[in-house]
Design goal:
binds 2-oxoglutaric acid, Jelly Rolls, about 20% strand, 11 strands, four-stranded antiparallel sheet, alpha+beta
Length: about 260
């Protein structure tokens, strides 16, 4: 057993009550700075792209993204299995932690797109709701940079009706302004349930906001429908996949 702690009992009970927990200083400021440089280097190599949600397009805002970053830089392969991260995930999910997908975001200065309030559930619904996200902050994310905002305890409402192509929540009930801001420092990580109502505001500051978001689940949890696949999905980051199914090559699955 590793000596690296996951969550204290207080942090775990905070998570269960509120649906999220911020772990301060999961990475050192030096490590965060190095990952930040990697994210910006990937963005530089891949050129301009934008992941602004349909419901907030047309306001001259942008957000740069790239999925499955561990296929772009080995630094992120190492980060995905970093025990400081996986042990927190184990404290929440259980001993076995499986990768669903990863994605980096850079919210550019002054016009970094917001994320309307939403649950992640409708994108990749699962039977047991074991899915969590962790947002790793590679630079400071104060409120004016468009930090994460949440409705604490909303994960207890279960799956909620979602609207439009980006599955956002009704804007009259779940306003961005009414949500609790969770400002973070470089090196902090915020873990949250895929049922938590969350979003984030515009980056109106003069600095980019740079993050990596990783979705994780219990391998015994079953997707309720196909879709939202990703390269590397199913990779075990901690523990084992207890499946007793016979080994199959990936191309056999596709042919089935
Ligand atoms: O990075 C953020 O501010 C939120 C991202 C998010 O909610 C998502 O990608 O589902």
């Amino acid at each position: 057993m590793s000596a690296i702690p996951g969550l204290t009992p207080e942090q775990l009970s905070f998570y269960h009550k509120n649906g999220y927990v911020r772990v301060a200083g999961l990475l050192s400021p030096e490590e965060a700075a190095a990952y930040r440089a990697e994210v910006h280097a990937i963005a530089e190599r891949q050129g301009s792209n934008d992941a602004t949600w349909e419901s907030v397009r047309g306001q001259d805002t942008r957000i740069t993204h790239c999925h499955d970053v561990q296929f772009r830089s080995a630094a992120f392969t190492r980060l995905l299995v970093d025990e400081r991260l996986t042990r927190v995930a184990q404290a929440i999910i259980g001993p076995n932690v499986q990768l669903h997908h990863s994605k980096m975001f850079i919210k550019p200065p002054e016009k970094g797109s917001p994320f309307p309030m939403h649950q992640d559930f409708p994108y990749f619904p699962h039977r047991d709701h074991s899915m969590i996200a962790v947002i790793l902050h590679f630079d400071d994310a104060p409120e004016e940079k468009g930090c994460l905002r949440v409705y604490p305890g909303s994960h207890k409402l279960g799956p909620l009706p979602a609207i439009g192509a980006d599955h956002h929540l009704p804007e009259d009930r779940f306003t961005l302004d009414g949500a609790t801001p969770i400002p973070a420092k470089a090196g902090d990580a915020i873990f949250f349930s895929y049922l938590l109502a969350h979003g984030s505001g515009l980056n109106i500051s003069g600095e980019p906001r740079t993050t990596l978001l990783v979705q994780l689940r219990d391998p015994a949890d079953l997707p309720l429908r196909e879709g939202h696949g990703s390269r590397g999905q199913g990779m075990m980051l901690a523990g084992i996949d207890p499946s007793t199914e016979e080994f199959r090559f990936a191309w056999e699955d596709k042919a089935a």
